[in-house]
Amino acid sequence: MGDGMSIVSIRWSLVLSLLALMGAGWLPDAGVQVQPQPACQNAGAPRTAIYFVNGVTTTLDEARLNGGKLELEFLSKLPTMIPSVQAMCHLFFLNINPTSGAVKDFLEAGQQRLGLTAPAFWRGLEGVGLATSGMITQVLQRPITKADQIDQSTINRHATAYREQLAFPSCRRVLVVPHSQGNLYSNASYDEVFGQVQKPPVDAVKIVGVATPADAVRGNGLYRTSSTDLLINGIRLVLPGTLPANTNWGISPLLLSPTYSGGHSFIGYLTAEPSRTQILADIESSLGALASVNPC
Q1: Which residues does residue 20 pair with via DSSP β-bridges, in sequence order?
Q2: Domain residues for 138?
Q3: Are 71 and 36 in contact (CB under 8 A)?
Q4: Is the Cβ–Cβ distance between 165 and 174 less than 8 Å?
Q5: Residue 16 located in a structural domain
Q6: 3-class SS at 95?
Q7: Residue 180: which of 33, 66, 15, 74 has the closest Cα?
Q8: How many domains does the chain have?
Q9: pLDDT at 238 (0 to 100)
Q10: Mean pLDDT of 78-98
Q11: Does 256 have pLDDT greater than 90?
Q12: Could you tell me what percent of the chain has a pLDDT over 70?
């Protein structure tokens, strides 16, 4: 959010967002409760750490809201997932991703040249006309998937969190679900984890990307990018190596709402169909693969 937005404004924005979600049936009402995970009552059950990594221009409160949506949708689906996934206790975490590096330069350039706030400029990329302009090409002329062009301290912090989960005594498998720019950080932190002399077991870390601007998902991970995601479509025009679309939001009124960022918002991906069902299936598949790995 811009510096001029007060804490009160942010809180009201979040309240209104929650009310809108509840009104549309996307969040449970006060009388609905997600059942606790039976496996978590067993101290000997294998543990998995599931991390949400937010995208650019996302506040901490917004990242928590997105992470909560992920946990809610997953736990609602868990009773119907394969037995090996139900047998694990899944713990949810947030790896916050601040705006930085090449993307920070990208936003600052837009603010300076167009007089826009950072979120407004990022949303502006959703328009194909802006995405194909010379200004965007100039700012994105460097390959932003390189680790040295995003914040190294954030990469190190994310990688350290994953290593601590994998190591004794935690011995937890790790699943990372990044959104938007968070995919770049997740790829880089994956390389950091497996670039150490003492590497964790292969396949102890899985990534399921959402709305990714990257050209790959590390560890042969899965991803979903919507054909109706105007932001990623715009990036793909500038960086043709960006992974192709492989899902969509169907015929959804969310696509017309500025709140859902031209088909780019994480909550939208986990609300619209078929993207919601496909992302949850990718998560289930990845957790099934993790179930066969012992991190320690």
Answers
A1: none
A2: 35-290
A3: no
A4: yes
A5: no
A6: strand
A7: 66
A8: 1
A9: 73
A10: 94
A11: no
A12: 71
Cis upstream peptide for 79 (omega within 30°): no
Instruction: Report if residue 5 sits inside a domain.
Output: no
CATH number at residue 158: 3.40.50
SS3 content of the chain, % helix, strand, coil (to 5): 50, 10, 40
**Which of 140-149, 159-168, 180-189 bottoms out in mean pLDDT, i.e. has the lowest?**
140-149
Place of tokens 């209104």: 16
pLDDT for position 251: 87
Domain-located, residue 210:
yes
Q: pTM for the complete prediction?
A: 0.78
Q: Which of 231, 273, 270, 268 is nearest to 248 (CA)?
A: 273
**pLDDT (0 to 100) of residue 226:** 97
User: What are 120's two structure tokens?
Assistant: 């407004």
270 pLDDT band (50/70/90 cuts)?
A: very high
Say which DSSP state 253 is in: G
Pairing of strands 222-224, 47-53: unpaired
What average pLDDT does the segment 53-72 reach?
A: 88
- 186-225 pLDDT, tens digit per residue, is 999 999 999 987 889 989 999 999 999 889 999 999 999 9
Question: Strand, coil or helix: what is 196?
Answer: coil
In a domain, residue 13? The reply is: no
Q: Distance between CA atoms of 64 and 133, rounded to whole angstroms?
A: 34
Give the integer Cα–Cα distance in Å for 87 and 45. 7
Sheet holding 222-224, edge to edge: 89-95, 47-53, 173-178, 205-210, 222-224
Map residue 219 onto helix, strand or coil: helix
By CB atoms closer than 10 A (0-12, 13-18, 19+), residue 226 is buried
- Encoded tokens for 209: 């990307």
Phi and psi of 210, rounded to 5°? -130, 130
